[in-house]
Automatic annotation (TrEMBL):
Record-given protein name: Lanosterol 14-alpha demethylase
Catalyses which reaction(s): lanosterol + 3 reduced [NADPH--hemoprotein reductase] + 3 O2 = 4,4-dimethyl-5alpha-cholesta-8,14,24-trien-3beta-ol + formate + 3 oxidized [NADPH--hemoprotein reductase] + 4 H2O + 4 H(+); 24,25-dihydrolanosterol + reduced [NADPH--hemoprotein reductase] + O2 = 32-hydroxy-24,25-dihydrolanosterol + oxidized [NADPH--hemoprotein reductase] + H2O + H(+); 24,25-dihydrolanosterol + 3 reduced [NADPH--hemoprotein reductase] + 3 O2 = 4,4-dimethyl-8,14-cholestadien-3beta-ol + formate + 3 oxidized [NADPH--hemoprotein reductase] + 4 H2O + 4 H(+); a 14alpha-hydroxymethyl steroid + reduced [NADPH--hemoprotein reductase] + O2 = a 14alpha-formyl steroid + oxidized [NADPH--hemoprotein reductase] + 2 H2O + H(+)
Record lineage: Eukaryota, Metazoa, Chordata, Craniata, Vertebrata
Keyword Transmembrane: yes
EC number: 1.14.14.154
Family matches, as InterPro entries: CYP450_sterol_14alpha_dmase, Cyt_P450, Cyt_P450_E_grp-IV, Cyt_P450_sf
Record organism: Latimeria chalumnae (Coelacanth)
Length: 508
């Protein structure tokens, strides 16, 4: 296998420089030729590699299976990309039924191995970054957006230090201030909705999440500069998180890539000015920007302006899609179940008092029904459905070995577990059952353990619960003619399709 791998690597190296030369010649002349050259080369390499690898995979050594089952495809290069793209959940469920929790397939010339369910996915959380590597898969997307020197552009130990600095700024004292800021932003934003109507809930919540995150995580100076022009810059930056940016080479002169890079430069300039003013005048604020200005790495050196600006962009965008989609789905679940919505409103009064005074952090913690609605939304509509890693070394997944030993029994057991986990029954009213290993939603929504765990979880809870407490006090929500949005699988984070909701001002 080593020989085969090195043959393939040499092929890629030779091909890479061929493409580079070809591209140098065609750039500026003809984009189509460039794409054709790249595609032709990739098709040939993929065809060759597929033939070589297939012969290896189809003839595993006798005894226990060495490789996960590979789902065959008759479409060269694209493989299963189309059927997966159309309906990833159905594709994965079918594959799970047929092959069990661990299987591989090809899409756009790349082999993906899926680990489905908590048992199999444990490997992903517990492995070392040197073995299952995150930056190799995420950096293509994040580095052009956040910039260099941060997140997946640096070795993981450095990113871990940066995450620790950010985590210092996400503390309870800060959350207590955030609740008031988010409530104010929400009341202000929804003034434009008037007393009743039908509006795009996802669009509104996406705009509101940017405003609240900027106010809470960037500080008042940067928030005060957030006008329509800056909002457009964020939208252009955000346009960098696409399948195209992940799959296509970054140097392609695509309009979305150019807009992303221009927005990145302009936003950084805005942040530099604010950072320099704070440094110059020595004003000390109690916020995330100050935390980063005062932070140092283990060896004592401080963050550069560029690193601070990159971390601020990362902080804003890491929670943007996750929180806005989750809040929107939660709104549709509440609109679909009026009795649940009424109980959530009653909880506002029970926890905060009949007069519904301004919210505070301790009250939010006592809103257990609202909390379960949020958790159930995250379980049924997880914004990050798939976590990805590049396998740098051979890995054995416990379930594959176990599947060899006791195949039938094991597959049956995991199927039941998976169905249990994703069944559509809504558990808004009961606390999660204490079944070891599978029950707690965190186990499959936020990466509970490991070096890539989410640092924004508590902030996301504060943000979404404050927004929904405020909205429940303002309006009653209904589905428009009973329409509950379908899932839009074409976006990287699965958003609600046609997310229009009906609302009217609450009068009692
Ligand atoms: C509903 C909201 C959110 C959900 C569902 C969510 C989910 C996740 C998940 C599943 C991961 C693991 C990704 C992986 O292992 O590949 C993650 C990591 C992370 N999240 Fe969140 N997140 C949310 C909100 C936020 C917010 C608001 C922030 C920032 C304020 C944030 C910052 C991060 C960071 C920095 C990481 C670490 C990435 C790494 O170390 O590789 N998240 N999140």
């Amino acid at each position: 296998l080593k020989i085969l791998t090195s043959m393939l690597l040499s092929l890629f190296e030779v091909g890479g420089s061929l493409i580079e030369n070809a591209v140098e010649k065609v750039v500026g002349i003809n984009l189509t030729s460039m794409v054709l050259v790249t595609t032709a080369f990739l098709l040939s390499v993929v065809y060759l590699s597929k033939k070589i690898m297939q012969s290896h995979i189809e003839n595993p050594s006798p005894g226990c299976k060495k490789y996960p089952p590979h789902i065959p495809s008759s479409i060269p290069f694209l493989g299963h990309a189309l059927s997966f793209g159309r309906s990833p959940i159905q594709f994965l469920e079918n594959a799970y039924e047929k092959y069990g929790p661990v299987f591989s397939f090809t899409m756009v010339g790349k082999t993906f191995t899926y680990l489905l369910g908590s048992d199999a996915a444990t490997l992903l959380f517990n492995s070392k970054n040197e073995d299952l590597n995150a930056e190799d898969v995420y950096s293509r997307l994040t580095t052009p957006v956040f910039g260099s020197g941060v997140a997946y552009d640096v070795p993981n130990p450095v990113f871990l230090e940066q995450k620790k600095m950010l985590k210092t700024g996400l503390n309870v004292a800060q959350f207590k201030q955030h609740v008031t800021l988010i409530e104010e932003e929400t009341q202000e934003y929804f003034k434009r909705w008037g007393d009743s109507g039908e509006r795009n809930l996802f669009e509104a919540l996406s705009e509101l999440i940017i405003l609240t995150a900027s106010r809470c995580l960037h500080g008042k100076e940067i928030r005060s500069l957030l006008d329509e022009k800056v909002a457009q810059l964020y939208a252009d930056l955000d346009g960098g998180f696409t399948h195209a940016a992940w799959l296509l080479p970054g140097w392609l002169p695509l309009p979305s890539f150019r807009r992303r890079d221009k927005a990145h430069r302009e936003i950084k300039q805005i942040f530099y000015r604010v950072i320099q003013r704070r440094r110059q005048f020595g004003e000390k604020e109690d916020d995330m920007l100050q935390t980063l200005l005062d932070a140092t790495y283990k060896d004592g050196h401080p963050l550069s302006d560029d690193e601070i600006a990159g971390m601020l962009i990362g902080l804003l965008l890491a929670g943007q899609h996750t929180s806005s989609t989750t809040s929107a789905w939660m709104g549709f679940f509440l609109a679909r179940d009026k009795s649940l919505q009424d109980q959530c409103y009653a909880e506002q009064k029970a926890v905060c008092g009949e007069e519904l005074p301004p919210l505070d952090y301790d009250q939010l913690k006592d809103m257990s029904l609202l909390d379960r609605c949020l958790k159930e939304t995250l379980r049924l509509r997880p914004p990050i459905m798939t976590m990805m890693r590049m396998a740098k070394s051979p890995q054995s997944v416990a379930s594959v070995t176990r599947a060899c030993q006791k195949k039938k029994q094991f597959l049956k057991k995991t199927k039941q577990n998976l169905r249990w986990l994703w069944r559509q029954k809504l558990d808004f009213l009961i606390p999660p059952p204490p079944i070891a290993g599978h029950c707690h939603f965190k186990k499959f929504v936020f990466s509970l353990l490991g070096r890539h765990r989410c640092i924004g979880e508590n902030f996301a809870y504060v943000q979404i619960k404050t927004i929904w407490s405020t909205l429940l006090r303002l309006y009653e929500f209904d589905l428009v003619d009973g329409y509950f949005p379908k899932v839009n699988y074409t976006t990287m984070i699965h958003t609600p399709n046609n997310p229009v909701i009906r609302y009217k001002r609450r009068l009692y």
